[in-house]
């Protein structure tokens, strides 16, 4: 499914179903587990989180790529548009409940260290667990990486797990630094120069 899936941009009609797939993709994510420690509520909270992310970042100011099966997405923002829009921040912040201050501290730390030169920012890349390991995540990133190369710009992202960081390294990303807030798991800040192989 991963290598053969036809890619396309996300539409407004896709958002609800795709938010569910993204929630499944990030359910076991170490950083989201730290921010949303209630296992029973995490999936519903993540779904609402990704509804806001897809609507206000992917469709609102950037782009989002998916496949016809709607089992994953790569959400990115173009140069100068990497900061989270206020409306998305408010909608997403509500999903952290009593841990909203944790989320704000982590977001602040990430934003202070965010790459400042012009770049394309991958806000989120996720594939539902049943379809992971088949190359779909890499394929979903390819249109934005190709655009980076055409424009001579780097790509930037935060990797929340060792497995994800290893995938991004295979795509040419290199570790810049790590961010932790209190006892949070590390977030690996990674960049890929234009035309990396």
Write the layout of secondary structure elements.
Layout: E1 7-9, H1 15-26, H2 30-35, H3 39-58, E2 63-67, E3 72-77, H4 86-93, H5 100-113, E4 120-127, H6 136-151, E5 155-159, H7 162-170, E6 174-179, E7 187-192
Parallel strand pairs: 4-5
Antiparallel strand pairs: 1-2, 2-3, 3-4, 5-7, 6-7
Helix pairs in contact: 1-3, 3-4
Provide structural commentary.
This protein is an alpha+beta fold. The chain has one domain: 3-Layer(aba) Sandwich (Aminopeptidase). The chain has a seven-stranded mixed sheet, with helices on both faces. 43% of the residues lie in helices and 20% in strands. It is built from seven helices and seven strands, in the order βαααββααβαβαββ.
Structural class, by secondary structure, is alpha+beta
Compute the gyration radius: what is it? 15 Å
User: Which whole number gives the mean pLDDT?
Assistant: 92
Can you summarize the main beta sheet? 7 strands, mixed
> What is the helix/strand order?
EHHHEEHHEHEHEE
CATH class category name? Alpha Beta
User: What is the strand arrangement across the widest sheet?
Assistant: 1-2-3-4-5-7-6
So, the CATH homologous superfamily?
A: Gcn5-related N-acetyltransferase (GNAT)
How far apart are the termini? 24 Å
């Amino acid at each position: 499914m991963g290598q053969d899936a036809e890619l396309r941009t996300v539409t407004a009609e896709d958002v609800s179903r795709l938010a569910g797939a993204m929630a499944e993709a990030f359910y076991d994510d170490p950083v989201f587990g730290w921010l949303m420690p209630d296992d029973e509520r995490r999936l519903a909270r993540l779904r609402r989180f990704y509804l806001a992310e897809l609507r206000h970042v992917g469709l609102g100011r950037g782009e989002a790529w998916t496949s016809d099966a709607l089992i994953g997405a790569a959400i990115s923002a173009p140069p100068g548009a990497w900061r989270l829009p206020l409306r998305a921040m408010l909608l997403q912040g509500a999903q952290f409940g009593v841990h909203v201050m944790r989320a704000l501290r982590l977001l602040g730390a990430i934003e202070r260290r965010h790459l400042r030169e012009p770049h394309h920012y991958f806000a989120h890349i996720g594939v539902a667990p049943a379809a992971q390991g088949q190359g779909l995540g890499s394929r979903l990133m390819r249109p934005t990486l190709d655009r980076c190369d055409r424009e001579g710009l780097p790509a930037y992202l935060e990797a929340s797990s060792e497995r994800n960081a290893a995938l991004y390294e295979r795509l040419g990303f290199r570790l810049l630094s790590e961010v932790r807030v209190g006892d949070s798991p590390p977030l690996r800040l990674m960049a890929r120069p234009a035309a990396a192989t």
